[in-house]
Amino acid sequence: MAPVHCKQQNQTDMATVTKENIGPLNEKITVKVEKDDYLPSFEKAIKSYSKKANIPGFRKGMVPTGIVKKMYGSSVFADEVIKTVEKSLQDFMEQEKLEIFAQPLPLAENDPSKLDMNQPSEYAFSFEVGLKPQLSLPDFGSMQVKKYKVTVTDDMLNEETDHLHKQHRVLSEAETVPAEDYELNVKLTEEAEQEESEGGINQNYYFFSTDFTPSFREQLSGKNKGESLIFQPAVALEEKAKEDFFKEVGINKSEPEAADKSLKLTIEKINGSKSPEMGIEFYGKVFPGEEILSEDEFRNKLREMIAQQWEGPSRNQLDDQIYHQLTDHVYIEFPESFLKRWLMNAASTPKTQEEVDKEYPGFVKSLQWSLITEKIIQENGIEVSREDIEAAAREQLMGYFRGNPGFDFDQPWVEDYVQRMMKDKKFVEDTARRTEVEKVFAWCETQVHPVETEVTAEEFRKLQEEHHHHH
Known about the structure:
This protein is elongated. It contains 16 helices and 12 strands.
């Protein structure tokens, strides 16, 4: 499209400003300043320098302005002209209520080297701006979106019940290593013929039964406290436990001798574990404060808990669909040429055209989402209050203690923690930004009419994987 040239001229308190349309959502703004616009501030700046200058041969504050002008005049003059231009540009954009992207781009035709304090005259500086486009939000009620509900199966209930049994198991000291679910305190030393070698391993270690490979668990099963056996870490330990063990005892697992390393393992303490029986006592541990009297009631409560755990991921999936509906179907015209020039020159090191072309699609997608959320926020009065940020700080703290259901959050130091976080500028800014996005999606969720769709846990996980792969 050929540029449309349409000039508009305004007079600010300091300068004459001309606005010219040079393309879709693309304006050229020219600021002309007369010497009367900037000379008073220049003279004032020179006097200020005279009072502060520390020049040999002159008392501080008594340096003649002529000397100061000779030494610093040119740079001070240029600064004051540019300040006057920038102030006039800012005033003009505020008067015109121009909503622009980023900052105005100075044009190549500007030449500050022409500024001459000995011959002050009229100067003109031009800038290019990209205007924010207008947009209309779609009919949220007609969006084709789904709310996935994960079906809680009996297998899921059984698996969670087994997990809860392990979580609430009771440890008791034993004399003999059981077949499974135990913890061992052991003494590790070099084998008998190497025991006296200088620098040999001689230390205590702690293992879970799951640290061992099935074959080594068989060797341990039935062993008594005080018994010893040969222990080859490379063969006896599962991969993760092996990595942790080698790091702890100071063996480089990549060295050849690590594969053949043999130690003497002496069992010093055995803690066997016993899972609690199904019953009122167990139900009370899983759901404190709830009166659950039968296994059927327990499984129904567990079903509700598992369904609730899937609610968060399900909402995230719905929000993702809303995001794509908005970004795929809300058309927004952008000043592409301006934005690409801005991308090229905004950083301290200019980008190449190839870099800009590669970066632009993602950049403009982000701008699109920013404009859409801005529109939703403005039209619906969405705000983030201090109370919202304080609540987020408390929620963060609660996350640290979720494993301790008896923790008292009414303690005075909790409020001290919250107020300390409110003084952390980065925390406040990040939390405000995140909370604002959450409120935008919460509002969107009230506007759409999703089709509730039942899926299995496996089907839902596959949806999540596809989403992550797409992004």
